[in-house]
Amino acid sequence: MNRRREQKEPNGRYFQEALSDFMYDAASGKAIRHLADSGFTTAQITRQLCYPTPFRKVQHTVTDYFKETGILLEALPVEQSCFKKIHLNNISAEHLFSRLVHCIHNDSEENSYVLYPFASDCGALSVLTAREREYLEGIAWEPAAMYHRLNRRMLEISVQLAMLPGELCFYFLKNKILYHVKNTNH
Questions:
Q1: pTM
Q2: What band does 170 get if pLDDT is binned at 50, 70 and 90?
Q3: What pLDDT digit, counting tens, does each position of 133-153 carry?
Q4: Alpha helices (H) along the chain
Q5: Which residues neighbour 92 within 8 Å (Cβ) at sequence distance 6 or greater?
Q6: H or E element: which one contains 122?
Q7: Of 114, 123, 166, 170, which sits 20 to 30 A from 87 (CA to CA)?
Q8: CA 158, CA 168: separation in Å to the nearest integer?
């Protein structure tokens, strides 16, 4: 008798998980994706939902959605060796911003990315506004670095982070240009 129950349980558990996922998507998933498209942070989305949903669940939904839509990439579709590498050392924020805007204009936003290596470095986020930190903390960053599309929000965040000591890389896929920004100023 117990053996039959054990055999049925995996199928029952599978059904329950599938039903739970369906209910979640119907109750929250579409709203989460719409609010993410509208520029809401994960924390704001969590507060907006009528159906109570844990922050981590919303965070993973937003992250998965960003991966599906190409806002986040785990790997670039172009080999690293194909890029023309331009080194920018100790560049001012204004100069960097204008260069990046020019490249985004030439390549389009959909082909412009920043390699975001700060997944576990909360100290780097201290230079950002609370809303910018909230945006980044609302993404379930992988342990390995990920690429984030250079939309307006990420452009502003990235320029600020590029002013910190360290390195940041900007990729423009269409024209195969890589800006390697290194800042040694403290």
A1: 0.84
A2: very high
A3: 999 999 999 888 899 999 999
A4: 2-24, 30-37, 42-48, 55-69, 93-107, 130-137, 152-162
A5: none
A6: none
A7: 123
A8: 8
**Residue 16 burial (10 A CB sphere; 0-12, 13-18, 19+):** exposed
Token pair, residue 10, equals 């995996």
What are the structure tokens assigned to 61, written together?
């939904």
How confident is the model over 27-76, as pLDDT tens digits? 678 889 999 999 999 999 999 988 788 999 999 999 999 999 999 999 99
Total residue count of the chain as it appears in this document: 186
Give 164's DSSP letter: S
**C-alpha count within 13 angstroms, C-beta hemisphere, residue 114:** 24
Q: Identify whether the C-beta of residue 114 lies closer than 8 Å to the C-beta of residue 136.
A: no
